């Protein structure tokens, strides 16, 4: 799946769940991890001084890597995460694990959440971990009507194959303001979309087949309403451990159900870990 897992931290305690999750992934997939510390406020002091915020995080992470038997590499980059992460990942498609960066509320108010900026600039798959929910017992895979989730779904199935959780395939039928045959068919048959010959129905059947081939227990759920609200409501009601969503970046279509903003809005609630990957045709 990937030759290395990149985990990013800026030394804030809010990034510890990402390190723990990345450690579990490395051990489960038998994949080396690279912990990259972001020195966002460089000073004349050296990184190995006890006062540096990365020092404690690195020490705790290394202990976790060793206990889990995970091969690891440590690295330090200077610069703010919003710029340093995209620069470090340029041209690489490795799995990225990160968590909330602990920005002050005022900064988030004026600049927006860091996850949104990073997601827009990084083409690699991202696993965003606000808090750890392990072991994986139930995962929710959000399927849109355009197939943009295929890349994320494929990656997720490879990850969960080692944990073998229950898989729920969710599609949300939003209020439809464009009157064309496909939209009418979806609206009229939303309660049994998996049985229809619509693009959404075919995606649901493909997802079920994919899960069953992997030996996973899977079912389909369809909700009707606002996309973000319905996804979050299902995530709460179902008590899921991982949410999988696609990204329609660089795709062009009349209607983009799961746009980058929708994925970001869901992830930024910090409800559960979210795995997202850009759409890649042919996956």
Characterize the structure shown.
This protein has 283 residues and is α/β, with parallel strands linked by helices. The chain has two domains: 5-128, 3-Layer(aba) Sandwich (Rossmann fold); 138-278, Rossmann fold (3-Layer(aba) Sandwich). Helices cover 38% and strands 20% of the residues. The protein has helices at 16-29, 53-68, 81-89, 105-111, 114-121, 150-160, 181-188, 199-213, 227-238, 260-267; strands at residues 5-9, 33-39, 72-78, 95-98, 126-128, 138-142, 166-173, 218-224, 242-247, 274-278. A ten-stranded mixed β-sheet has the order 3-2-1-4-5-10-9-6-7-8, with helices on both faces. Strand 9, helix 10 and strand 10 (274-278) form a beta-alpha-beta unit. Helix 1 packs parallel to helix 2, helix 3 packs parallel to helix 5 and helix 9 (227-238) packs parallel to helix 10. It is globular. Residues 145-149 and 248-258 have low confidence and may be disordered.
Fill in the CATH topology of the largest domain: Rossmann fold
Mean pLDDT, as a whole number? 81
What CATH architecture of the largest domain do you see?
A: 3-Layer(aba) Sandwich
Report strand order across the widest sheet. Answer: 3-2-1-4-5-10-9-6-7-8
The biggest sheet amounts to: 10 strands, mixed
What's the CATH H-level homologous superfamily of the largest domain? HUPs
Task: Tell me the domain tally.
Answer: 2
Low-confidence parts lasting 5 or more residues at pLDDT below 50?
A: 145-149, 248-258
Number of helices: 10
Secondary-structure element sequence?
EHEHEHEHHEEHEHHEHEHE
Category from helices, strands and their pairing: alpha/beta
